[in-house]
Amino acid sequence: xxxxxxxxxxxxxxxxxxxxxxxxxxxxxxxxxxxxxxxxxxxxxxxxxxxxxxxxxxxxxxxxxxxxxxxxxxxxxxxxxxxxxxxxxxxxxxxxxxxxxxxxxxxxxxxxxxxxxxxxxxxxxxxxxxx
Length: 131
Prior knowledge:
mainly alpha; Rossmann fold; two-stranded parallel sheet; 5 helices; 8% strand
């Protein structure tokens, strides 16, 4: 039996609308983000989803709760699914944060992690799935 893994990002947050890179700060969905989360649930309703895995950050939890909370689909939380930790640069303007993005491919953000470390962290989650 083939297993299909589909990645969806959290819905639009208040920080996204303000142009901030939230990183590991909790963040909250904006009204538009809550509407998009509801649409995600509707769009995926017929996809025969066996389980939803999400990070433990508030905006991700809020997204899946709106999208799938009224279904029987199990929702499982794992911190390893968080986005890159920008460390001291969490909640800075996205344009400022990403202007030097290539610098942080291997070098960790001050007090945070590098992009490769973030990818490796998410990669450590995948073998734990009972496929």
